[in-house]
Design goal:
heterodimer, A: 167 residues, mainly alpha, 2 domains, three-stranded antiparallel sheet, 58% helix, elongated, B: 101 residues, 3 helices
């Protein structure tokens, strides 16, 4: 990564932190704006000294935008599996059948792998236990939840979102 | 009471009920990993329902944008915490109870 790239990363970090400050503060007096500017600059200096700015992201940190349609689909899945887990909890017989499965990861970037592992954990009934380079180990509450992951529907959707064009 | 107040109240009550169901699950499940599954019902269904009820109650202003940000950050951080717990439990030699298959 060249010095030019790191410079643009710093600028985009400053802009996004400043927008976050303005949105969270809600007060626009000169003193508070000055304090905000000061803290944004301190955070940028600290994160560049920690070497956090050389992360494998594109210049504009809008990488997450392509995952928004996927996020809407994911909320639907979360609701479905929540209803399933609640039914199992409320059933007097407690019909659970825990199992461990290993899934193959087809994503290229670290970010997409983290999105996949986090989506598995976010969906009730499945938890990602161990994340390695090209596989993830999953603990599932029931065999049906494990079958749903083995079809690879979520995996395909994330790989598709990862390959979407820049916005 | 307008219609929106009734809808947001219903969402908040449903979220509270789902938290009770999640707690019942934490109490009933047999081992560490299955308890984590029950706790993730609280993290997802409970927070989504309660915070969306509060957002509807506020209408569109600075407070509701902050509530939406809280919801997004909770949905990013809780699976990370659950993954860290599960991973350290597995590496700390806690054997998960497995079904008969």
């Amino acid at each position: 990564m060249s010095k030019y790239d790191i410079f643009f990363h710093k600028i985009s970090l400053i802009i996004s932190l400043a927008l976050l400050w303005i949105m969270l503060s809600g007060h626009y007096t000169p003193l508070l704006l000055l304090l905000g500017l000061l803290s944004v600059i301190i955070v940028t200096i600290i994160s560049s000294r920690m070497g956090l700015i050389t992360f494998d992201q594109p210049i504009l940190q809008l990488y997450f935008i392509r995952f928004i349609p996927y996020g809407i689909w994911l909320i639907g899945q979360i609701m479905k599996s929540n209803i399933d887990v609640c039914k199992r909890i409320l059933n007097p017989n407690l019909p659970i059948n825990p199992c461990l499965i290993t899934l193959h990861l087809s994503q290229a970037s670290t970010f997409a792998k983290v999105v996949y592992a986090n989506s598995i954990t976010l969906t009730p009934g499945t938890i990602s236990i161990d994340l390695e380079d090209s596989s993830v180990e999953v603990h599932s509450l029931s065999a049906t939840g494990a079958e749903g992951l083995k079809t690879g529907n979520m995996d395909k959707k994330i790989t598709h979102a990862e390959a979407a064009p820049y916005v | 009471m307008s219609n929106i107040d009734i809808i947001s109240g219903a969402l908040i009550v449903a979220g509270s009920l789902s938290i009770v169901v999640g707690l019942l699950g934490v109490y009933r499940m047999p081992d560490f990993f299955t308890r984590l599954h029950a706790a993730s019902v609280i993290d997802t269904l409970g927070t989504i329902l309660i915070l969306s009820g509060l957002i509807l109650y506020q209408g569109f202003n600075l407070v509701s944008v902050k509530l939406l940000l809280i919801l997004i950050f909770i949905l990013i951080t809780t699976p990370t915490a659950a993954h860290a717990l599960a991973k350290s439990a597995l590496h700390g030699k806690i054997k998960p109870i497995l079904g008969d298959d």
